[in-house]
User: Fold Amino acid transporter transmembrane domain-containing protein from Trapa natans.
Amino acid sequence: MHQRFIIYTSDAGMQFITFGFACTPLYFVWEKLLRIHNTKSLFQRALARLPVVIPIWFLAIIFPFFGPINSTVGSLLVSFTVYIIPAMAHMVTFAPSTARENAVERPPSFMGGWVGHYCINLFVVGWVLIVGFGFGGWASMVNFVRQIDTFGLFAKCYQCPRTAPPQPHKA
Assistant:
């Protein structure tokens, strides 16, 4: 019992920290829009942040099934934006020999120089395309489709076990 409490408490703490990190840029823009970004009053800033936080909380209550959506978006979009596009951009940028000659930093020699670096980038692109986008996208879509009938706005009980419908009384 005590161990479960610690796990749930630490998980809730991580959720609050993640929420804070994700919303901080929104807070800065909102405070700048309200022209209170230079104030020292924490109370005033907290009150000003409520119009940012309340709609996000409301959306979280409406859509409790965000996990499957998040995994689907993550596997399909994050694979491209974090791994594939930067590696491909690096390979395209340094494909001409003049770009490699004028590079400010050169790849370390233990990586095989430019050829080794190009091969590593090609491996990362291929691996993430197959494993992250391919298998990850497939698994998250299968998970999404399996759970689609449990979704509902303002669900009273998200993914609760289904109860059998009442049987008609036989006389």
About this structure: Residues 1-62 form one domain. DSSP finds five helices and no strands in the chain. The chain has a mean pLDDT of 83. The two ends are 47 Å apart (CA to CA).
